[in-house]
Design goal:
The complex is a heterodimer of chains A (590) and B (722). Chain A is built from 19 helices and 23 strands. By secondary structure, chain A is of the alpha/beta class. Chain A has 3 domains: 1-116 and 325-346, ATPase, nucleotide binding domain (Nucleotidyltransferase, domain 5), CATH 3.30.420.40; 169-313, Nucleotidyltransferase, domain 5; 357-556, Alpha-Beta Complex (DHBP synthase). Chain B contains 23 helices and 18 strands. Chain B is globular. The termini of chain B are far apart. The chains are: A alpha/beta (590), B alpha+beta (722). Chains A and B meet through helix 2, helix 3, helix 13, helix 18 and helix 19 of A and helix 1, helix 2, helix 19, strand 10 and strand 18 of B.
Chain lengths: 590, 722
């Protein structure tokens, strides 16, 4: 039995395959197409899932789509969506997803579709390993729902309460993200990273933006919001309230901006905690599953854990819309077979493509790129990498199957020494080429967490923050408020990464490495060895590890880096040489 | 937010009607209410980056930006997103010309830029040479040409060039004027409705007529704008209409749906005509070609080309001319398919008519070349591809221009027209290639050869290896050093199946051996396995005592190795492009990443490159289907390897999975050609056209061309004996 789940047409299109009741592949389109947040039909991700499952299109039993475009259309019409007739208004075409699955993917069989938040809920609950759970989903908006409360029992999910558009926590967060001059749908993470630098001086004002009761019922004060515009989500009233002008993108960030970010974060936690309380009042389970874009807010997730309301919490690694592909596939599985696709908790996110030593050797030798070859003695590889890390080098680490979800988890990572006080600035400026305030996350040996971080449970997906309690000085991964966003690494889920960390620990007594995603700004995380090579050349990474091969930057001529930069510029969405291209709005859910 | 949700529910139910009728009605209302003429607007959108006037009081001219230095305004070359397309050697332009100098701003497209020979020999240089050697006056020719310059860019550049206070503006353009692109799958809503109406009233031919009318309208507007610019600024304008290669460039593309069962018949005739051409049976090919033209109302490039080739082979070149012109005219209308830049005859005619009306001197290069050659079939003596000229072509083209310009300073001569008895031909006798490094010429012809092999698809699919070897030999004749470049090219192409081209050591070395920045992308963008190119180069290397065969074998090994796991020949790498396609888009996905999830064939035969050794039988797993409504209608398709039949399959309109064996006896070590020969078209043409009309009506994308068959996967692997 082969079931494909698809999320597409809004942002982060993805595809997942459940084969014989097992999730065997899940991947986002952007990784193949190299266009960040690629929202197009996931053609390449679809083909990859078939290859991973060793099947072809005739073997698919069902394709499950992650939302109900007919319900969504009603909401879009009702909410005063931009009906400028001179625009294409492609959103009017609610048949498009299914037509494209037939026409473009070529699929001839059964297509099922599920409500957006149900897909979110399923993506968490059915991969949690729980036989029952309370469920909270929260994002910008699906069809109508922006937040849902549910209960999972066996193969059933019941969403018994929802908050409807326009009252949305996700949109509240996105509005302030927009106000702070960051790009909506990708800048929220940056706002979360800014928050520790600020003071909660805007909390009172932000509280005027919504009403919230003890059960977590939530309503936005629409005087301050306008979701029908292309380039901003707020009204002038918000500016008058905050007495702070909206920040223009790419301009200087001042203390007031930091304070606004901090205030927003606290508000979010406040709302989410109220909702968790409300949920707890309704559902007796000791398990909680969270999903939706808001569940990617690691700081809020930690607050939820600290509340102690639920004993066990599960958040899957691709909690945004990408992960809904998994959820939709799981729902279809239940519809068709009648039982959960998966009885065990998803313990790793390595669901993408991998490349063999032979592939890489063939590539490197044909390109005449000098590399150290550790195929005969892989343990020496770890020593060589650790040598370089200790010497202050930044390493591109490419191993095994690619991760699913926004976080790099030791398969497509950039790693470095967390003890180095200059490392954070170096990584931000030279390597990632991004804003200087952005913190970096640690990867830590699971067996050593209790000595270094204030979190006593595994966190393999980097979805929760906690305090650093280590006696070691770890400036590269310790945020300004003493927090970090760790990934715990076990030998079972990622033996190679675990082995590397172990060697580093043995040499330095530090079981932690900086672990950030292997990409530069505005680029998706690398997928293939060639992507890694290109990113290596287009950034300040000092050494690249591709499976059992290691390449030092110093071994490459200057022209390699020139070409890598050119190549990176060449990769952009198809652009007609003779006609002008079109621009897109900031938040295209409308 | 609206409160009356009942109405919206009704509306969303209406739009969500499963038969999509609600969507169609909505689109009709939408286009009715828009009521704007979108036919000509886009052509004037410039594809050049726009900048405001800066503190100097001036704005950029192309990639040259104004600065003030030593109380002087200079336009300095600055890196911007399209710098690669402009002339590459000039670092600055002085705003004020030198005393006693006539200044010419030479503006135009890639043909005007002298693509492939820029920057060492260009029309600007040739013009300058002619003028400065023939007159006592000092002439300065500023090259403001840009490859891929569109109509809007042309007008913007002309306007920007006024800042240089030129005495003359010489414009050479018309190749890149695409009106609303016909058969455009991504057309905006208003255009789709228009196409729907045309299909309803006139059928597919009507879209061609509409395109022609629109392009003429656009041409009129462009000429008017140029005239206004010239008049308002009191600057003499000369307009050169480019010419096209008729003899040695083929613009093959499929045919759209015809009527009365004729589509299938057209393709059957095409198959027969192709075979006739291959066997040099030109009389037969001529008859068949004319039968094709009778079906397609003379509107198809392919049939016109078949007739033209036959007539040329039969030495009836004068008769062939009109068919060549028709091929070029109609090829322009197939967006994303065969839209080779070229100036259609009706644009040429319009330019000349308006030139006379507006008193703009017009130089028609087609007329000039015909006069010079003594033949109407312009060919590779003047062109390196479809429109870019050889150095001799450039030299000839600029001679009458120089003559006209110099006549402005001669008394008692007519200034506004070129007559055939004016002796501009004397200028042409001057050697055009003096002082040019032979290696530069060799590099030019190397890239020209690549371009030809990748884009110039013969109408009959015949692979003439010797012809391609001779293309590369021409480069080697200029300089043997080019053989090193060829070796580097093959090495770079073998890196990660071509995708590692620029990051490889060989690619990096190649990058440093180009004439202009535009050369490298020609090599970089080579399609996939590219068997023919690699084989031609390697055989040439072998003939020149280099280890070409060994190099080819090393190249092939990368692909042969993949057969252990299996390769899917529907990956872009392996698909042989039998349409003539030019990349109109900067599309990094064209060659190495999948753009469509499965392969569609617009021709009766599909070709794939299979790189294998002949030591093992191979297993072929194919998942395919043919279009059509009737699931019970089934047909057979044939699969051949190197023309050796290896099996046939029954196919229906649902995906069918089949397994075949490719015997090692059918394989050649190295490059093999796998062909799928599809059954004849069986769809109901009227239904198909109706279907397209309805889709356009709903604002949806269409595929105007019949599809013979579709392949989801075509996996070849080494057969494992159990």
């Amino acid at each position: 039995m082969n079931i494909i789940g698809i999320s597409a047409n809004f942002h982060d299109s993805s595809c997942a395959l459940i084969q014989d009741s097992k999730l065997i592949a899940a991947v986002s389109e952007e990784r193949f197409s190299r266009f960040k947040n690629d929202a197009r039909l996931p053609i390449r991700a679809f083909r990859y899932c078939l290859e991973a499952g060793k099947i072809d299109i005739t073997d698919i039993d069902c394709i499950a789509y992650y939302e109900n475009p007919y319900k969504k259309l009603l909401r879009q019409l009702s909410s005063g969506a931009n009906l400028d007739l001179s625009n294409e208004l492609n959103w009017i075409d609610c048949h498009k997803p299914f037509r494209e699955i037939n026409e473009i993917l070529g699929y001839e069989g059964q297509i099922k579709f599920y409500d957006h938040h149900l897909s979110h809920a399923a993506s968490s609950y059915f991969f949690s390993g729980f036989t029952d759970a309370a469920i909270l989903t929260s994002d910008g908006v699906g069809e109508w729902a922006t937040t849902t409360y549910g209960i999972g029992q066996g193969p059933l999910i019941e969403l018994f309460k929802e908050i409807k558009y326009p009252h949305s926590i996700g949109l509240l967060y996105s509005t302030i993200t927009n106000y702070l001059g960051f790009e909506v749908l990708s800048g929220e993470y940056k706002v979360m990273g800014l928050a520790p630098y600020g003071e909660p001086l805007f909390v009172d004002k932000l509280q005027q933006l919504f009403n919230l009761n003890d059960d977590g019922d939530f309503e936005l004060n629409m005087e301050y919001f306008d979701f029908s515009q292309i380039d901003h989500m707020y009204t002038h009233s918000l500016t008058e309230l905050l007495k702070l002008p909206p920040r223009e993108p790419k301009t200087e960030i001042n203390q007031k901006h930091l304070d606004l970010a901090k205030s927003l974060q606290l508000i979010l936690e406040q709302i989410v905690l109220k909702q968790i309380h409300g949920l707890k009042n309704k559902v007796t389970s000791s398990n909680l599953c969270m999903s939706g874009g808001v569940a990617l807010n690691c700081v809020a997730n930690h607050a939820v854990r600290n509340s102690g309301l639920f004993k066990h919490i599960f958040i899957q690694p691709a909690s945004g819309d990408a992960g809904s592909a998994m959820g939709a596939a799981a729902l279809a599985h239940i519809d068709i077979i009648g039982k959960n696709p998966n009885n065990q908790q998803l313990c790793n996110a390595y669901l993408g493509p991998k490349y063999t030593d032979e592939d890489i050797y063939s590539m490197l030798s044909s390109m005449e790129i000098e590399a150290f070859d550790f195929r005969d003695n892989p343990s020496k590889l770890y020593e060589a990498v650790v040598d370089r890390i200790i010497a202050g080098k930044v390493i591109g680490w490419f191993q095994g199957r690619m991760e699913f979800g926004p976080r790099a988890l030791g398969a497509r990572s950039i790693i470095a020494d967390p003890r180095d006080p200059t490392m954070r600035d170096r990584l931000n400026m030279l390597v990632k080429k991004r804003e200087s305030f952005r913190p970096f996350a640690p990867a830590i040996l699971e067996e050593h967490t209790e000595n270094h971080i204030d979190l006593n449970i595994p966190t393999p997906f980097m979805l929760e923050t906690c305090q650093v309690i280590s006696t070691l000085d770890l400036p590269a991964i310790t945020h300004v408020d003493g927090s970090c966003r760790p990934q715990t690494v076990s030998a079972k889920t990622n033996p190679k990464f675990h082995a590397l960390l172990t060697v580093f620990y043995q040499r330095t007594n530090c079981p932690i490495l900086v672990n950030t995603s292997f990409n530069v700004k505005n680029e998706p995380i690398v997928c293939t060895p060639l992507d890694a090579l290109r990113c290596f050349g287009n950034s300040g990474i000092d050494a690249l590890v591709l499976e059992n091969f290691l390449i030092d930057r110093t071994a490459l001529p200057e022209i390699f880096f020139t070409m890598a930069k050119q190549e990176a510029e060449f990769i952009k969405p198809p652009q007609d040489l003779f006609m002008k291209t079109q621009t897109e709005g900031i938040y295209t859910f409308i | 937010m609206k409160n009356d949700r009942t109405n919206f529910e009704k509306l969303s139910n209406f739009l969500g009607n499963p038969d999509q009728s609600g969507l169609e009605i909505f689109r009709l209302i939408q286009t009715y209410l828009i009521n704007k003429d979108s036919t000509t607007e886009e052509i004037f959108q410039s594809n050049i980056p726009e900048y405001e006037i800066n503190h100097t009081g001036f704005k950029p001219i192309g990639t040259w930006h104004p600065i003030e230095k030593n109380n002087e305004i200079l336009f300095i070359r600055k890196n911007q997103s399209d710098s690669i397309f402009w002339e590459s050697s000039r670092t600055q332009i002085k705003r004020i010309k030198e005393p006693n100098t006539n200044r010419i701003c030479f503006i135009g497209e890639s043909a005007a830029a002298g693509m492939f020979f820029s920057p060492y020999y260009t029309p600007s240089i040739a013009l300058s040479n002619h003028l400065n050697q023939q007159t006592d006056i000092t002439w300065e020719v500023i090259d403001l040409t840009r490859s891929c310059m569109n109509a809007g860019g042309l007008l913007a550049t002309c306007e920007a060039s006024l800042q240089l206070s030129p005495d003359f503006i010489v414009v050479m353009a018309g190749n890149n004027w695409f009106a609303e692109a016909i058969f455009d799958n991504d057309a905006p809503i208003t255009k789709r409705q228009t196409y729907s109406q045309i299909l309803e009233n006139e059928g597919p031919d009507g879209i061609i007529n509409s395109y022609k009318k629109n392009l003429i309208k656009c041409t009129e507007k462009i000429m008017l704008k140029l005239d206004n610019l010239s008049q308002q600024n009191n600057i003499k304008l000369i307009f050169i209409v480019p010419a096209s290669n008729y003899g040695h460039w083929e613009r093959k593309c499929p045919i759209y749906w015809q009527k009365n069962g004729n589509t299938s018949k057209w393709y059957d005739l095409y198959q027969k005509a192709s075979e006739a051409l291959e066997k040099s049976n030109y009389e037969e090919a001529l008859v068949l070609g004319k039968q094709m033209l009778a079906i397609d109302n003379n509107n198809a490039p392919t049939s016109n080309r078949i007739v033209a080739n036959s007539l040329i082979a039969l030495e009836r070149t004068d008769e062939a001319y009109n068919y060549c012109v028709a091929e070029s005219d109609y090829a322009i209308m197939h967006n994303q398919l065969t839209a080779f830049p070229g100036t259609p005859s009706f644009v040429r005619k319009t330019c000349k008519q308006l030139g006379e009306e507006f008193q703009i001197p017009i130089i028609d290069l087609e007329e000039i070349f015909i006069d010079y050659l003594g033949s109407k079939i312009l060919n590779d003596s003047l062109f390196v591809d479809y429109c870019h000229m050889t150095p001799d072509g450039i030299n000839i083209a600029m001679a009458p221009v120089a003559k006209l310009l110099s006549s402005y300073y001669t008394k008692n001569e007519k200034k506004d027209s070129i007559q055939s008895n004016i002796d501009w031909k004397k200028l042409v006798k001057l050697p055009s290639l003096n002082n040019i490094d032979p290696f530069q010429l060799a590099v030019s012809y190397f890239y020209i050869s690549l371009y030809d092999l990748h884009l110039n698809q013969p109408v009959n699919n015949a692979l003439n290896l010797e012809k391609y070897i001779s293309l590369f030999q021409k480069a080697a004749d200029y300089s043997e050093k080019i053989l090193d470049v060829m070796e580097l090219y093959v090495k770079a192409r073998s890196c990660y199946y071509g995708a590692g081209f620029s990051l490889s050591k060989a690619g990096q070395q190649l990058f440093q051996l180009v004439n202009s920045p535009l050369d490298f992308p020609v090599a970089q963008a080579s399609p996939g396995v590219d068997a023919l190119t690699i084989e031609a180069i390697c055989l040439l290397l072998e003939r020149n005592s280099r280890e070409g065969i060994k190099l080819m074998s090393q190249y092939q090994q990368h692909y042969i190795r993949l057969l252990d796991k299996g390769v899917d020949l529907t990956e872009p790498l392996y698909i042989e492009r039998i349409n003539s396609i030019i990349r109109l888009a900067v599309d990094s996905e064209l060659s190495t990443r999948r753009k469509i999830p499965y392969y569609k064939s617009w021709w009766p035969n599909s070709y794939f490159s299979l790189v294998a050794d002949n030591n093992n039988d191979l297993e072929l797993k194919i998942v395919c289907r043919i279009p059509g409504e009737n699931e019970t209608v089934d047909n057979n398709l044939k699969i051949l390897v190197n023309n050796f039949p290896i099996g046939h399959l029954r196919v229906t309109n649902k995906w069918n999975k089949s397994l075949l064996v490719i015997p090692k006896s059918s394989l050649i070590k190295g490059f093999n050609r796998l062909c799928i020969s599809w059954p004849s078209l069986s769809q109901d043409e009227n239904k198909e056209i109706n279907f397209l009309k309805n889709r356009y009506s709903m604002g949806l994308k269409i595929n105007m061309f019949p599809v013979f068959g579709e392949v989801f996967s075509l996996i070849v692997s080494k057969k494992v004996d159990l």
